[in-house]
Structure formats: structure tokens, C-alpha cells
Write a structure and sequence with these properties.
The complex is a heterodimer of chains A (1131) and B (451). Helices cover 10% and strands 47% of the residues of chain A. Chain A is mainly beta and 1131 residues long. The radius of gyration of chain B is 26 Å and the shape is globular. Classes of the chains: A mainly beta (1131), B mainly alpha (451).
Chain lengths: 1131, 451
């Protein structure tokens, strides 16, 4: 089998199918099973028992019966120093075989040992009776009799079917070259044909191959592919595979149903493997990916437990369209919706009327996935790679493959972790030592605290709020295994992460099951299900217009005021504001719970399979459903509830979401007998639907202690629906030739969507790519690949953008209608991204080091734009297409494995990404894509400027105040640097992640400064000829000089670190013989941050996930560092 | 076998193409195009009420924004933090409140024109009902334009806005053109209301209960016209219009039209009912005393003494209690203002005795104060100051009246201030989006530094 191009993501399933066909071939040609056959090869043949038929009519001719079905039954045997007679009885009973013998024939009391899992009955009997000088005679009824070794003629086994040509059987064993241990699940295939099998757990295999010289190909995930020429007269082939430490030969998805080896790949597709994802416990998948992928800018929106993170691939691709990459899990496009909690009803952050807003610090639903369940993640970062996903792929595609079982011994693993999170940064505040100062700032209310000239005690409000370190725990377990035809993998997680603020937490309970099944000779099924429940408590954070959000309240409270709970269980009223944040944290609940189910299925049907041409029909379908409940309760005892006259408030939001997708593919792989090339052709169609329905109820004037939304005096309800249907067609051709050195790919996709103004128009997205590996054979440079790719993808309009709305509402009980704000977009269509990418991949020292450099340019044309209409026309905005956004960037990924010995292994990896965007043309007036007005630091899309520029008020030399550019949110570059160091059983892993440049708008600091309460408010600095307080200076510059609050967000973070120790085998077995491995670990996430940013955390986004208007810091959830200690046991 | 499998696969492939319809309608809102294609009386009525709703939003914004400009009071919420913008400035195109007193009004004008253009095609309304609706709509158009005209004063504003929404914005009309346009609208509305029969086709909310017939609504129309007359110093017309308005010297001073707020789903509560609106303390300090020594009754009813609060250097211990609950209504225009408007017109026409009578009526009824010591022979400025005192205290925190009046008579700098950096702004610039759409940079697109 020419394996430059293998079907993916189902290639494992296909290979399993190939194995099955071989089993048929073997049945046709003879010897089975492996043990017996090994014994018969060479000198051992005289010692092993043979399995023979009962002589017919007393004749001398007996037939070799070692293929008989009864002897192929599989048993697992564990016998230690057992008398042979008992051993035979036990094994026979396990296999359901009646065995009789004359007691004097064999030494029944000889002690024997046999430990084997999942071996054939023939194998087990063969082992037990080895050198006993007997054969096994099978009757027609399946009864077995031991007979003295038969010396007469033995006929070959009966032939069941005719075979087309001469074949022979070869056997062998595959080992790991580093450890010397046998390797199971290695695919052994005859080059250029479909014939193949897998090695067993003990590394052995047997395979029927054509007579004559043949080339065998050995492949296994995580190892480098090996080819071996087998001369006509050699029947034993042993092989050693080298670990692919730097993952040079990984399979990477390039089509909807096909993949290509990374060696030949023409795009810079980054992949993250299971061990990298699970290196340190993470609450969400994005968290586990930070710093690991060049070109993936992954940032948290706040420190709240349970996620709220954004993944931005290769910079900005859209301004008002979707800001999310497409997430595909096992072929199913899943939802990453971020449903707002309804906190806006309490905080009035965005408006006094809406129940929810994008300032609610929402969780995005990627948080539901279990990072431990992930086998592999691929990042198709730009259009040149993602074109095959058409009009949803402009932000890139993240392809997640979950874990599957492998044929062989059942393996299980259980990991228990304990840990905690701790507040990692505080802002501090001004300390007053003087009554006059305090009264000047806080009014006469402050005076009594300084009565009689005393200096009051101070309180650390931030620590009182966020200084909690509750115990977190996580249990994960998995079990997997199976036979040649059926493999399964089941895993589960139960996790509780305590938050650093009261009533904040993140819980996850989830279970997944994966089944791979071969049905008949032509069909492989791959079915996966995940069902889980995720919940979190998020507290009240982010922007707020009533002073209830924690960090919108603390800045205004002097540190000499004691907020803490009184002995009688009540809290003191805060006379300096509208809320007591400690009271709010203790009594307010903001809980979110989500039930999530993802069902995926792939059926691969081998329509045609000849040695040189295979045609597969691959159907992939699935559904992703979640039901989310957000329940927010602000009880009537809270200070701000008493003061604002609404008493208790409660918000209940129920959201249901269903995504379905189905696609059908025909994949043809043609390889001529010359092997000169391999051509993979693909044609497919797909349909995706997305439905979301959100119901909010906001109740006011709750007087009791129940949060039920019917308990108030009035309720506000809202319902929002979304329904999207997309359909697509695609074609792709991959052509691999010149001895696997040249790969050419061309493809196209056509899409239509209900979100386009014309839902029937098809939009085309072509792509093409080429890669060429130079035939170099130097000692230093082992492989050089040049690659170039070009492609287009799209980003369809969001639901609702094509409609012009009359908002129906209510005026004192009378129906009213008003213009909704946006003018209908009569010609809305997808944005188009044209990306050109080129690069070189270098491999040094036979794969001990790699360097990949990629340059790209993206041109996004037909941008979805929100034209800010002159409001005098009656509409504030209009959606339309137009303009060009260009992004250029460079990405470097390097890895090196300088030491790979049995005792010491050392690998390092680094990534670097830099990109810069510019709005080349803009057919509309400059407009704000979200955020606050200019005096607070605003975002503005303006031709000739970076789309992420920050504008604000600037005072010119002549004193005039104008609006100008004062910063840019996009970082100059991002870097990840990590390493793995193993010495014998001990491992050290670490990952640093750094960002240079990029600005944050620090309005939290503005709060402190406005309150004249910032820690550095009076710290003297020289300004011109005078000395002023730092904070006092800043606020004196505002609002005419906004740039004082636009601050450099550069940072270096120690993202992940783990020290672990694998217990040696003898210690493991002291724990109990059921265990096969055990390890202990200590790990941490975000332990250290080096930054000059004066806010809580440079990773921040008040408005949640945004194309542009990220990096706004308004009273965020404070950041924490997390520590974990774990014990992992393997069975 | 193989052949049939291939066949099944091809059929499955082909069968799915074009299977599902990809047309999805708007699931969340009615569409404007739908109304224009087939307008109904119910929808037209709902949009008419929508104009009232839009006016309510604008009125609430005006209470706060112009209230701060006129030093009636301050929003002292730390979390908002934008108080300095209102009192220190400068005002730049792009500020929150600049946008707030502009976009909402023009959205209402667009909605008004959508209905007016389609009204001829509404099958289920009588001619009289259509006339009444025209009168209602044009009156609110004039009301919205008045708010824009007051705040943009000499800058002028666009008025010819019944144009395609996809084109260029309407040109900016001069102050004189704007006020003439508003008067024309109100007079056109009068003609329609007079042909409007005995009732409106749509239900009216409680705040409009006094004006629920076209004839009664006309008295509101005239009262609004009198406001415009005074803004252009046409005192004679003001007297005429007030005579046709609902002015009464015998009825309640609070008789008039108001904006309702409810807790109903889809409705709004009074956004000025919040604990962080503090009154300018000078208002209390400068209040005249009642014969018994108590402060002017209007101070006592509109604010309460609370713990002193300081924010950004502004200090106050007086919180507004004018809006006592989230469902308290905000006045649109009421009898007390009409009487004071008549006094203003009388002063303008030199009818000082009548003016003093009207002022004394308010002093007694509303403030509990003794009659003014001024006489018809007192200086014009003294009389004007007395009028302004009463307008300020009677209409405080109800709609930015102080700022409008003190600006009208060039007396803004007489208003109190607490900070050395404070500025008074006589005018508001246009919103940024409007400026960016204009090819030339009109006067209204400059930064207002104040004085």
C-alpha cells in the first residue's frame, strides 16, 4: 500500500479493514495461527505439536487442521507453575474444547507456566505441549485427542477458495529501537497493494505476500515509517522502528476525508498531540493549547474558572463576522457558542434594558470537551489549508480527533489529581494617613475613621475577596482495547475546580465511548459518543454601571473601611459606594450548567479494492447538542439591591443548541503497478445545520429567599432564535509522485447558506498546493522540503445581518414598534479570504532536529462591514460587503531532540509567530467595530491603518483635542518555548509563552484613579517642572489624553510545568499485580508572569471573544495560578 | 455486489443535493420591508406608539445630560466614571451623550416617514383615523426635532430626512430653517388633527390620558409649539399658542403629558430612578425660604438630604427623590411649565404685571413662597432672574430646562460650579458617525471646549 496518501480521519478504520481481508487470504492459503506457524518455521518444528485430522477410514493420510475454527478461539491464560495436566484442563475449558489423552502419554505432573493474553487456543496448546512429543488429533465433531507424534505424511489443509496467484507466508517481529521492547499495532503492509496486517502485542506478525521480492512497509503512529525489501527466499522479517519524536511523519488532514503525511504536506499545519494537550491539567482545550502553536494567538478573557478564551489564527480575518475558527471533532462541526449569563440585567453594563450582553464574561462551549480525551489537534491556520471547509473556514479550522482503542490487550488507566488555585496578582490601593486627604477624596464620611488623629487599620479588600484556595480534584479513567475487527475506548472524567472567589467554581463530568467495528469485508464503522455535564460559578465581574461588579466596586472603597462579615452574619453597608463586594461574592450566585452530547459516526465502504485502485465511500455524520441553563440570583439583602429599589433580582436563561452535519465522500486512490505515482481523488457533498434557541427571564422585586423567576413582582422575558442551513460540494485531487517527493494538490468547494442574502447562490473556493522534497543525503541536512499553497475560503454573514428589523416592544402595556437599528443588507454574501503561503521545512541529523519557516499573506476581500450610517438617516448601521484587509505574517516552528537514549531523552520545541494587518481599502467611513467611545480608548476600522488600532483623545501642542491613534491591540510577536527532559523514570516538562507588544485599555486603573485610590496615586513623578503623583497625573490627563490608560501588554508566562516520576516496574507490582504502570506528578499552570502591565492580567477582554475589540480591561475576574498533584495508574 | 454498492453510494450522494431548503426567515423581528409591502392599521398604530417610546428614551437622556450641563445635578456613580465629561469636557463628536441626543430622534423620524409614506395604503383605517394618526406622528416629529434644535442651536441640523437611507445624509439646515420647519410640522399636524375625528385608532398609555382624542391632543401640540416660539423669541405667537393649549390657572400644576415606565416585559423602567443622582448643593443653598423659614417647597419635594458623597471632586449630600420608583413617570410637558412660559412671553412683550401674577401663582402654589417683591417697574433683568429662578426650581431634573433657559439668555456662567476646571457648554457637537459621513466638516463637527 502506497501510504503517502491514506484516508483520514478514518484511516485506522480502513487499515483494520485491510487486515480483515488478509485474514481471508490466510484462510485460503494455510498456516495459522502465529505460534504454531512460528514453531513450524525452522528447527523448532520438531518440538511443537501439530494439529491433525482424524485419519479417514484408518488411512495414514492426515490433514493439517491448525486452521480449524475451534483452534482459533482466543483465550487469555495466566498459569504459574501448574502441573501440565491441570494446565491442559484449564486451557481446554477456557477454549471450550474437549481434550482426551492417555495419562501415560505425557508427564502430567511437570510444572508449566504460561502467561498470554488474547492468544489462540492452538497457540496456548502449542506452548503447553511444546517438546512433549505429541500431536493433537481433531475429530470431525471437534473433539481433540493427544496422540504420540505422528511421523506419517501430512496433507496441506483443505483449500476453501481459489487464489489468483502464488503466495507465501512471512513472519516476523517488530520492536522499538530505543527500548528494545516489542511493538504491537504496527501496520505491516505490502507496498503498492492493499495487503497488510497488524502486529500483536508481542510485536509478532505473519502475512501472506506474493512470491518473489517484495517490499514491506511498517507504520505506527508515533514512529517513523520503515520500508524493508524482502528477497524471494526470506520468510522471516524482523524490524525495528524509530520513534518519531518530532512527529515528522504525522498524518494531516487535507481534504474532508483524506489526509497526507506531514513529510509531504504543502501547508504549515501545526499539530498538537495527546501528551502535549494533557501535559498539565487544563479546564478547557484552549487553555491546554496556549503557547504551543505558531500563529495561534490564544488568550483568556479573564481569570474566571471554566474558560472564556479566544483562539485567533493568523491574526484578524474578519471585522464583524464570526471571530471563531471552525471546530471539527471527529468529523462533526461543533458549536463554540458563548451564551451570555444575563449578568447585564444586574450590572446594566451595556444598557439598562437588555437582559444579557457581551460584557457578561461568558464561557465559550469548547469548555465542555475533555482535554484528556484528545488524541490529536490540527490547526489549519489559513485559507490555503482550510479551503475545503469553504465559507466557514476563513478564521481557520481546528480539527480535533479523540482517542480510539487499539487491537490487543485491554489497557486501562486511572489518574487522580488534587490541587488548588491561588490569586496571582493584586492591584493594591492607596493608603491614607491623613484625615484631610481622606476627606478630600471620600467626603465627610471618611472623617470619623481618623477621629482623634488616629491612623486607621487597613484591609486588603482584594485578598478578602479573592484569597480563597479551595481544594480541586480531578479523576480521569479510561479503558481501551479490542480485537482485529472491534476496537473500543471508553473514558470518563470527574472534576471540580474551586475558584479563588466564593461561589466560583468549575465542574466537569463527562464520559465518552468510541467503537471501531469492521462489518463484513467492506465496511468499517467508527462511532463516537460523548455525554457530559459542565457547570461553573462565575461571580459578578466585568463592566458595570451600578457599582456591583467586584472590581467596579473595590476601587472606590478606601482600605480603612472594613467590609468583612459582622458577627451577626450580616455585612456592613459600604457608605463609599453602592455595594459591599464581599457581601456580593458571598450571597450572589451566577451559575451555569450545560449538558452536552456529541455523536459522531463514520462509515467507510470499500467499494472497489484492487491492488492498484481503491474506491471508498465515506459517510461522516454527527450531531452536537447542548442545553445550557444560566441562573443568576441577586438576593434582596444585597446592599445595591436595597438601594436601587429592585429588591432581589433573578435571571434564568435556557439555551438549546443543535448542530448537525453530514457529508458523503467518494475517495479513489490509484497507484499504477509501476508505483510511479499515487493519485487520490475525492468528491463529496455536505450539509450543516445550526439551530439555537435562547430564552431569558429576568425577574425583579424578589422579596423572599428563592430565586425562582416567578417569585418577583415583574418579569422580563426574551426569546432569540437562530437557524442556519449550509450546503456544500467539494472536489479534490492529490497527486504524489517522483518517489514520494512531489505532491500536487488541487481542490475546490462550492457553498451556499441561508445566511447569505441570496440563499441559493453558490460561492466557489478553490485551492492548490505543491510540495517538493529535495533529494538531499547530507549528514547534517537530511530532508529539505519546499512548499507553496494558495487557497480561498469564506466567512458567511451572521444570522440576522441580512434582515432590516422593526423591533416589537412594549410601552406601558401597549404594543409598539421601532426601527431596530440596522438597515437590511440586500446583497450580503460571504467574506473571501485569499491566502498565499510558502515555506521550507528542514530536517537535520536524521530527524533529530527540524525547522519550519512559513510566510503567508491573507487578503480578505468583500469584508462584512457594518457601515455606520449617518444617524440622521434614521439607521445607525448597515451591513454590507466591501473593502480589503491584508495580513502578512511569518511563523517558525523548530524542534530538536538532542538526546534520545534509553535512559536520557531530551526534546525542545519553540514557536514564533508575527503578523501584521492593514485595512487596505474601506468603502465606508471609518467605524467602530465595538468597544467604548474614544475618550475611553476605542477601536476604529480605518483605511491605511491596522484593524486593531486603538484610537483615543489626543491633546495637541496647541491645546486642541483631536482623536488619533494611540495604540494597537495586536501583539508584535508571540513566542512559545518548551522542553521535555527525561532521566530514567523522571520527567521534567515546561512551557514558556511570551508576547511582545500589543496594548490593553486599562479602565480598571481609570476606576482607581478616578476614585483617587490607586496604589501609586501619590507616588511622585516629575512632569516638566513639577512633581505630581503618578495616579493623579494619569487622571489629570483624562479624558483629553486617553493614551495614559492604553498600556503595553507584553508578558512572559510560565504556562505549564510538570515534574513526574514513573515508578519502576518492580515497585508498580508491589502495589498489586493488576498494575502495569504507575506515575506521580506535580504540575502547575500560569505559575509565574513577568509583565509591566499594571492591570491584573495582560490577557483580558471585557467584551469576550471579539474580532477586534479585545484587550479592554474593565473590572475583570482576577487571575490565578494553579497547582496540581497527581497519581496515575495503568492496568 | 460491487456495482450495486457504487450505485447506492452515488444515489446517496445525489439524493442529498438540494434536498433541504436553505431559506430561513427572520425568526426574531418583524421586517420593515414586510410592513411597507402590506401595511396594517395595527402595525401603523404600533409604530405610532413607538414614536412615543423613542421620545421617552430621549427625554430620559435629556434629564441626565442637560441636567448635568445645567448644574441641576450629577450622576455620581464611580462605575460610570464619565461625570467629568459633562462638566469638564471638552465635548467631542463621539461622546456617549452626543450620540444619545441625535440617533434616537432620527430613528423616530425615519419610522414616522415609513408610516406616513405607507398610510395611504393601509386598508383597515378610516380617513379620519389616518388623519388623526398623521397629526400624532407630525407632532412627535416636531418634538424630536425640537430636542435636536435646542442642543445644536446655531450649528443647525439636517431636517429633510425623508430620503433613501442608502444615500447621502440630508444637508444641514440653519437654525432659522430648522425652527420654521418645526413650526410648519406642528401646524400641519394641527390641520390633520382637526380632520381626525373623535378618537385615535390606537390605544394610548396613562401618561397621555389627558390627550386621548385628536382635539385634546391638539392642545398638547399647541403647548409644544409655544416652547418653540419662546426658543425663537416669538412671544406673541407663544401667547397665542398657549391660549390654545391646555394651560389652566385653576387646575393642577402637574396636569399635562408624561412618559410612563413599567416593569412589564418588553417595557422599560425609569433609568433616572437610581441611587447615584445627586443634586447640585448650591440649589439648596440658594433656595428662597418660605414664610415659615422652610426652604422652597420645590427643593423639599424633589430631593432628600443624605450622607455626603464625593466623586471626582464634586461633593453633594442631596439626592434626587423626584422619581420615587422604577415606574415613576417623567414629565413631557405640564401646566406649571405652561404658566411659566406664559410669564416668559409676557415679560418678552413687556406685560410685566401679568408676568408677575403668573410667577406669583407658581411661587405660591409650587414653592410655598410669598409673592415676589418685584414690581412691573423692576428692571428687566431682575424680572428675568426671578422668572429663571422659578423655571429652574419648578422644572428641575425634568428635562434640562435650566441649561436651555440660561443659554437662551446668555446666563450659563451664572450657574454654580464646584471645580476650577469646570466648563459650561452652550452647544453640543454632532455625533462622530454623522461627521464622518459628511464630505465637508461643518461647524457642528468641532470640539466644544466650553467656557
Amino acid at each position: 500500500m502506497e501510504c503517502g496518501t491514506c484516508a483520514h480521519p478514518t484511516w485506522r478504520a480502513r487499515l483494520a479493514g485491510v487486515g480483515m481481508m488478509i485474514a481471508i487470504a490466510l484462510a485460503a492459503t494455510g498456516p495459522l495461527p502465529a505460534q504454531t506457524m512460528l514453531a513450524s518455521a525452522g528447527a523448532l518444528s520438531e518440538h511443537a505439536p501439530r494439529f491433525l485430522s482424524e485419519p479417514v477410514d484408518g488411512g495414514a493420510i492426515r490433514t493439517d487442521m491448525s486452521h480449524a475454527s475451534v483452534l482459533r478461539r482466543r483465550v487469555t491464560v495466566s498459569l504459574t507453575q501448574v502441573p501440565l495436566g491441570d494446565a491442559l484442563t484449564q486451557v481446554a475449558a477456557l477454549g471450550g474444547l474437549e481434550v482426551s489423552y492417555s495419562p501415560d502419554l505425557i508427564a502430567l505432573t511437570r510444572l508449566v507456566s504460561l502467561h498470554a493474553q488474547d492468544i489462540t487456543l492452538a497457540g496456548a496448546l502449542g506452548e503447553l505441549l511444546f517438546d512433549s512429543g505429541v500431536d493433537v488429533q481433531l475429530s470431525a465433531t471437534g473433539h481433540a485427542t493427544l496422540i504420540r507424534r505422528f511421523d506419517g505424511e501430512v496433507a496441506p489443509p483443505p483449500v476453501k477458495a481459489a487464489v489468483s496467484r502464488q503466495t507465501r507466508v512471512i513472519t516476523g517481529k517488530v520492536i522499538d529501537t530505543r527500548s528494545g521492547s516489542p511493538l504491537g499495532a504496527v501496520q505491516v503492509a505490502v507496498k503498492t497493494t492493499l495487503s497488510g496486517t497488524h502486529t500483536k502485542d508481542d510485536g509478532t506478525f505473519s502475512l501472506s505476500i506474493p512470491s518473489g521480492a517484495t517490499t514491506l512497509v511498517f507504520r505506527r503512529i508515533g514512529y517513523k515509517q520503515l520500508e524493508k525489501v524482502v528477497p524471494p527466499d526470506v520468510n522471516v522479517v524482523n524490524a525495528g522502528l524509530d520513534q518519531d519524536v518530532l512527529k515528522l511523519e504525522e498524518q494531516v488532514v487535507t481534504g474532508q476525508a483524506t489526509g497526507v503525511s506531514k513529510q509531504n504536506l504543502a501547508n504549515a499545519v501545526s499539530t498538537v498531540s495527546a501528551d502535549q494537550v494533557a501535559a498539565v491539567q487544563s479546564q478547557s482545550v484552549e487553555q491546554a493549547l496556549q503557547g504551543k502553536v505558531a500563529g495561534a494567538d490564544i488568550s483568556a478573557n479573564s481569570g474566571a474558572p471554566g474558560g472564556g478564551m479566544q483562539v485567533r489564527l493568523r491574526g484578524v480575518s474578519s471585522i464583524i463576522g464570526s471571530n471563531d475558527p471552525l471546530y471539527v471533532v471527529d468529523g462533526v462541526i461543533i458549536s463554540n457558542a458563548a451564551v451570555a449569563s444575563g449578568a447585564n440585567a444586574i450590572t446594566k453594563a451595556a444598557s439598562s434594558t437588555a437582559i444579557s450582553s457581551n460584557e457578561d464574561n461568558a464561557t465559550n462551549r469548547l469548555a465542555d470537551l475533555d482535554p484528556n480525551d484528545i488524541e490529536n489537534i490540527e490547526f489549519l491556520k489559513g485559507a490555503s489549508a482550510s479551503a475545503i471547509y469553504g465559507s466557514k473556514a476563513a478564521n481557520g479550522v481546528v480539527i480535533i480527533t479523540t482517542k480510539r482503542g487499539h487491537a490487543g490487550r485491554t489497557k486501562a488507566n486511572i489518574t487522580q489529581r488534587f490541587g488548588f488555585s491561588a490569586l496571582s496578582n493584586e492591584l493594591g490601593q492607596r493608603t491614607f494617613t491623613d484625615s484631610t486627604d481622606a476627606v478630600n477624596v471620600f467626603g465627610a464620611t471618611a472623617a470619623p475613621y481618623f477621629a482623634d488623629g488616629k491612623i486607621p487599620a487597613t484591609y486588603d479588600h482584594e485578598k478578602e475577596l479573592a484569597g480563597y484556595k479551595p481544594l480541586s480534584f480531578q479523576t480521569t479513567a479510561n479503558v481501551g482495547g479490542g480485537s482485529e475487527n472491534t476496537q473500543y475506548y471508553v473514558s470518563g472524567i470527574n472534576e471540580h475546580d474551586g475558584g479563588i472567589i466564593l461561589n466560583t467554581y468549575f465542574n466537569k463530568t463527562s464520559m465518552s465511548a468510541h467503537l471501531n467495528q469492521t462489518v463484513g469485508s467492506r465496511v468499517n464503522l467508527d462511532i463516537g459518543t460523548t455525554l457530559g455535564h459542565t457547570s461553573s460559578g462565575r461571580g459578578l465581574t466585568n463592566n458595570d454601571n451600578i457599582g456591583a461588579s467586584y472590581y467596579a466596586s473595590i476601587p472606590f472603597i478606601p482600605n480603612f473601611f472594613n467590609l468583612q462579615e459582622l458577627p451577626n452574619g450580616t455585612f456592613p453597608n459600604n457608605p463609599f459606594g453602592t455595594s459591599n463586594p464581599l457581601q456580593t461574592a458571598q450571597l450572589l450566585h451566577n451559575d451555569e450548567g450545560t449538558y452536552r452530547g456529541i455523536l459522531s459516526g463514520t462509515a467507510t465502504v470499500h467499494l472497489l479494492a484492487s491492488d492498484h485502485n481503491t474506491l471508498n465511500f465515506i459517510a461522516i455524520g454527527g450531531a452536537d447538542v447542548f442545553s445550557q441553563t444560566n441562573s443568576l440570583y441577586s438576593p434582596p439583602t444585597l446592599q445595591f439591591e436595597v438601594e436601587d429599589g429592585t429588591l432581589g433580582e433573578s435571571v434564568l436563561t435556557n439555551t438549546t443548541n443543535l448542530n448537525t452535519n453530514v457529508n458523503f465522500n467518494l475517495v479513489d486512490v490509484y497507484t499504477p503497478s509501476s508505483g510511479a505515482f499515487s493519485a487520490t481523488s475525492q468528491f463529496g457533498i455536505s450539509q450543516e445545520t445550526r439551530n439555537q434557541n435562547q430564552n431569558n427571564t429576568y425577574a425583579k422585586n424578589l422579596s423572599g429567599n428563592l430565586s425562582n423567576v416567578d417569585k418577583g413582582t415583574s418579569a422580563v422575558v426574551a426569546e432569540t432564535r437562530q437557524n442556519v442551513v449550509d450546503q456544500g460540494l467539494f472536489l479534490q485531487e492529490e497527486f504524489l509522485t517522483l518517489n514520494n517527493r512531489l505532491l500536487l494538490t488541487a481542490g475546490a468547494r462550492a457553498d451556499r447558506s441561508s445566511n447569505n442574502a441570496d440563499n441559493n447562490t453558490l460561492y466557489f473556493y478553490p485551492k492548490g498546493s505543491a510540495s517538493y522534497r529535495l533529494p538531499v543525503t547530507g549528514p547534517t541536512l537530511t530532508d529539505v522540503k519546499f512548499r507553496a499553497a494558495v487557497g480561498e475560503s469564506g466567512n458567511e454573514p451572521l444570522y440576522g445581518q441580512k434582515f432590516g428589523e422593526l423591533a416589537s416592544n412594549n410601552y406601558a402595556g401597549i404594543a409598539s414598534q421601532q426601527i431596530g437599528g440596522s438597515l437590511a443588507g440586500p446583497d450580503l454574501r460571504p467574506e473571501r479570504v485569499l491566502e498565499v503561503e510558502g515555506g521550507v521545512d528542514l530536517t537535520f541529523f536524521k530527524g533529530a532536529a527540524t525547522l519550519g519557516i512559513t510566510g503567508f499573506q491573507k487578503r480578505v476581500s468583500d469584508l462584512l462591514l457594518q457601515r455606520s450610517l449617518p444617524p440622521s438617516l434614521g439607521y445607525t448601521t448597515e451591513f454590507l460587503n466591501g473593502g480589503v484587509l491584508r495580513t502578512r505574517g511569518i511563523e517558525v516552528e523548530a524542534s530538536v531532540a538532542p538526546i534520545q537514549t534509553k535512559t536520557v531523552q531530551w526534546t525542545m520545541f519553540a514557536n514564533f509567530a508575527k503578523n501584521a494587518s492593514i485595512v487596505e481599502t474601506l468603502p465606508v467611513a471609518p467605524f467602530s467595530p465595538g468597544g467604548f467611545p474614544t475618550e475611553f480608548g476605542a477601536f476604529e476600522i480605518q483605511a491605511g491603518h491596522s484593524p486593531t488600532q486603538i484610537i483615543g483623545n489626543v491633546t495637541q501642542g496647541n491645546g486642541n483635542v483631536v482623536v488619533g491613534t494611540i495604540g494597537d491591540a495586536n501583539p508584535d510577536y508571540k513566542v512559545g518555548l518548551g522542553g521535555n527532559f527525561t532521566y530514567k523514570h523522571a520527567h521534567l516538562y515546561f512551557l514558556f509563552n511570551a508576547q511582545k507588544g500589543g496594548d490593553d485599555i486599562d479602565l480598571t486603573q481609570l476606576f482607581y484613579d478616578l476614585a483617587q485610590n490607586s496604589s501609586d496615586y501619590t507616588t511622585p513623578i516629575r512632569k516638566g517642572d513639577t512633581t505630581v503623583g503618578k495616579g493623579a497625573y494619569r487622571v489629570s490627563q483624562w479624558p483629553t489624553n486617553t493614551s495614559v490608560y492604553v498600556q503595553d501588554a507584553s508578558y512572559i508566562k510560565l504556562r505549564e510545568i510538570t515534574i513526574s516520576y514513573d515508578l519502576p516496574l518492580y515497585l508498580v507490582q508491589k502495589l498489586g499485580d493488576v498494575f502495569s504502570s504507575a506515575s506521580v506528578s506535580a504540575s502547575g499552570r500560569n505559575l509565574i508572569t513577568w509583565t509591566r502591565y499594571p492591570g491584573l492580567d495582560p490577557e483580558v477582554s471585557n467584551f469576550g471573544n471579539q474580532n477586534i475589540a479585545r484587550n479592554v480591561d474593565v473590572a475583570p475576574f482576577p487571575p490565578s495560578r494553579t497547582f496540581w498533584f497527581g497519581l496515575s495508574l495503568g492496568f | 455486489m460491487t456495482r450495486s454498492l457504487v450505485l447506492v453510494a452515488l444515489v446517496a450522494l445525489g439524493g442529498t443535493v438540494g434536498c433541504a431548503d436553505t431559506l430561513v426567515p427572520d425568526l426574531n423581528n418583524s421586517s420593515i420591508a414586510g410592513f411597507q409591502a402590506s401595511p396594517t392599521g395595527v402595525s401603523a398604530g404600533a409604530i405610532s406608539i413607538g414614536l412615543l417610546r423613542g421620545a421617552r428614551d430621549n427625554a430620559a437622556n435629556i434629564v441626565e445630560t442637560l441636567g448635568m450641563f445645567g448644574r441641576e445635578g450629577y450622576e455620581m456613580s464611580g462605575a460610570r466614571g464619565d461625570l467629568p465629561l459633562y462638566i469638564i469636557g471638552p465635548l467631542v463628536p463621539g461622546s456617549f451623550f452626543v450620540q444619545n441626543i441625535w440617533s434616537g430622534q432620527y430613528a423616530d423620524l425615519r419610522a414616522a416617514n415609513v408610516v406616513l409614506d405607507a398610510l395611504g395604503n393601509v386598508p383597515d383605517l378610516t380617513t379620519a383615523q389616518k388623519e388623526a394618526m398623521r397629526g400624532w406622528i407630525q407632532t412627535f416629529e416636531a418634538y424630536d426635532l425640537t430636542a435636536l434644535a435646542m442642543t445644536r442651536d446655531t450649528f443647525g441640523i439636517p431636517i429633510a430626512v425623508d430620503i433613501p437611507a442608502t444615500g447621502s445624509p440630508a444637508p444641514i439646515a440653519t437654525k432659522a430653517q430648522v425652527y420654521q420647519h418645526i413650526l410648519n410640522l406642528l401646524d400641519s399636524a394641527q390641520t390633520h388633527l382637526q380632520a381626525g375625528g373623535s378618537s385615535f385608532s390606537f390605544a394610548l398609555p396613562p401618561g397621555m390620558a389627558n390627550f386621548s382624542t385628536p382635539a385634546a391632543f391638539l392642545t398638547l401640540n399647541r403647548a409644544l409649539r409655544a416652547r418653540v416660539d419662546l426658543l425663537i423669541s416669538d412671544y406673541a405667537s407663544a401667547e397665542t399658542d398657549l391660549a390654545a393649549s391646555f394651560l389652566t390657572t385653576t387646575g393642577s400644576l402637574s396636569y399635562g403629558a408624561s412618559f410612563d415606565f413599567t416593569n412589564n416585559s418588553g417595557d422599560e423602567t425609569n433609568p433616572r430612578y437610581e441611587p447615584y443622582y445627586y443634586a447640585e448643593p448650591q440649589i439648596v443653598a440658594n433656595a428662597q425660604l418660605q414664610p415659615g423659614g422652610a426652604r422652597d417647597e420645590r427643593v423639599l419635594t424633589k430631593m432628600d438630604s443624605v450622607q455626603q458623597f464625593a466623586f471626582d471632586g464634586i461633593v453633594s449630600e442631596w439626592q434626587f427623590t423626584l422619581y420615587t420608583s422604577p415606574t415613576s413617570s417623567i414629565s413631557m410637558i405640564r401646566n406649571e411649565e405652561l404658566i411659566l412660559m406664559r410669564a416668559e412671553a409676557e415679560l418678552g412683550l413687556g406685560q410685566n404685571a401679568q408676568a408677575i401674577a403668573d410667577i406669583n401663582l407658581i411661587r405660591a402654589e409650587s414653592g410655598g413662597l410669598a409673592p415676589t417683591t418685584l414690581t412691573p417697574a423692576s428692571s428687566a433683568n431682575d424680572l428675568l432672574e426671578e422668572l429663571l429662578y422659578n423655571k429652574r426650581y419648578s422644572l428641575m431634573w425634568e428635562g434640562g430646562h435650566s441649561w436651555i433657559d440660561y443659554r437662551q439668555y446668555n446666563k450659563l456662567s451664572e450657574l454654580p460650579n464646584q471645580l476650577s476646571t469646570e466648563k459650561f457648554f452652550p452647544i453640543l457637537p454632532y455625533p462622530l458617525a454623522e461627521c464622518q459621513a459628511l464630505s465637508t466638516s461643518p461647524e457642528g463637527c468641532t470640539t466644544v471646549n466650553g467656557f
